[in-house]
Amino acid sequence: MVSDHTPRPATPLVTAGVPVRLEHLTKRFGPVVAVDEVSLQFPAGKLTTLLGPSGCGKTTTLRMVAGLEHPTGGRILIGEEDVTPLPAASRGVTMVFQSYALFPHLTVFENVAYGLRIAKVPASELSRRVGEVLTLVGLPEVGRRFPSQLSGGQQQRIALARALVMQPKVLLFDEPLSNLDAKLRKRVRGEIRELQQRLGITSIYVTHDQAEALALSDVIIVMNQGRVEQIGGPQDLYTRPATQFVADFIGEANLLPGRYGDGRVTIGPLSFPFRQEGVPAGTVMVVARPEAIDVRTDGDGLPGRIRTAFFMGMSNEYLIETPVGEVAVAEPLAARGLLPPGTEVRLTFQDTGLYLLP
């Protein structure tokens, strides 16, 4: 027989990961189609990033999942539940905003507890859950402080704690690191990734920063003009972009005109062996990553002249004029040092950083 005083098991901090599905989701603002018949699956327990330039529809898509915008057409399913008609508070999702959205007149404890108080959670459970989540984000000692007494990185972690304390099915991030400096942004994104993996919570992350997307994501969805351009893992999108837009947007890429046939690629006067399945013979766009191009001062290669040269600490970066246009190169530090502008060079291409678009 179990005693009435036996402690009850604590409610888990987050719900086990559930998938999110969009079916023909559309959003119009007057004559403008912001999101155009988008159908997507966000896998359970993974971090999926919506990536694209300003105005591509990624934030509007996120706001529709959150219930902050109502779709013009289509459906949103969380798990197996159609949440399209439900208000934001009834969807089991929480959002971490770009601006943190912390109340400056409330302590950290009260900021994190705010949603629980609205939901009329009993005081003892409220205190326990706030304490657990502050420990989870690594800030158990700041409950009595005010937001103004915290650093930007700490405020972002408190915003994350406030979202997690509601035990959401899905966690949404709207450009959460854009207010942080570059060094702090790297650290906080690592903390977000580690926490998401530890909790296994389904997360949808919006950013225009491709480096952030590559570092954080299990899956990246590249959007352009309200539609999906490509879906894949970070490495797939970087090494095998499906379109010129993706190649140019994911990392830095040289897009060079060329020809392909008989197991060879021709770029200007340079021809060399290369094979890629599924590419018909004929005119191609050669996607060449800057780090996959070697610079030589003699021998064979695509001829060029260095226009600009920069020492970047771990690499030398060049912009080189060639018969097929300017080529950007990121070269690991070489014993010869930085070559000066005006130097005549020859460029060769590594297979691992080359991809052909018909």
Question: What does it look like?
Answer:
The protein is α+β, with helices and mostly antiparallel strands and 358 residues long. It folds into two domains: 20-239, Rossmann fold; 252-353, Beta Barrel (OB fold (Dihydrolipoamide Acetyltransferase, E2P)). Helices cover 23% and strands 35% of the residues. The chain has eight helices and 20 strands. The protein has helices at residues 58-66, 108-118, 123-136, 152-164, 182-199, 210-216, 234-239, 244-249; strands spanning 20-29, 32-42, 47-51, 73-78, 81-82, 93-96, 170-174, 202-207, 219-224, 227-232, 254-261, 264-267, 270-273, 282-288, 293-296, 302-311, 315-322, 325-332, 344-349, 354-357. A hairpin with a 2-residue loop joins strand 17 (315-322) and strand 18. Helix 2 (108-118) packs across helix 3 (123-136), helix 2 runs parallel beside helix 4 and helix 3 packs across helix 4 (152-164). The model is unreliable at 1-11 (pLDDT under 50).
